[in-house]
Design brief:
It holds the Pfam family DUF6624. With 203 residues, this protein is mainly α. It contains nine helices and two strands. It has a two-stranded antiparallel ribbon with strand order 1-2.
Amino acid sequence: MVHTAIAQELIERRKHDLDVRQRLVDEGTLFGGYNPEMEQVHLENARRLQEIIAEIGWPTQEQVGEEASQAAWLIVQHAISWPAFMKSCLVLMKEQETTGTIDPVNVAFLSDRIAMFENRPQSYGTQFVDDDQGQLVPYVLDASVDQVNQRRQQLGLNTLEERLTELTAQRQAEQEKQRTAGERQAAQNEYDTWRRNVGWIAQ
């Protein structure tokens, strides 16, 4: 590890992100749209990471250690109000992937997340959404379930079916309220408006 202070900062910023999220879950205010306090945390972390990248490049495990490098990925994964930043980081991460200095699972998650926001099919089945009945399902896939599961296996991930079971249990543990069809449609409209406003999709 070369950049000890940066490593510690990234780890602390990830912890703050997750602590705020848990508090909002406990308060029952995280769901039902993008919580403004959560968005502010995500943007502040992303802006600081951009400064770090300008200074040292993408924070690889060799530079900041594995935990801090994972923290940098989480910050990017959560920077959903800043499409240009997320996409620029994906380019940097793919460059690192060719040299074996980054976890390919992180690249898969970020590329799927960007694809979802841009209305493109995902390749690794890492992103899940609600269907018309409010049930959690994998976001649109670019191949068959078997093919996607093969890709996941190559990365050391469990199957789509197993991941769906995990996420469903997690949702139940967080006691998210089941929304009516009208509420789901309103949430979808709000989501689409937000994506247009931040630049994921055309106006």
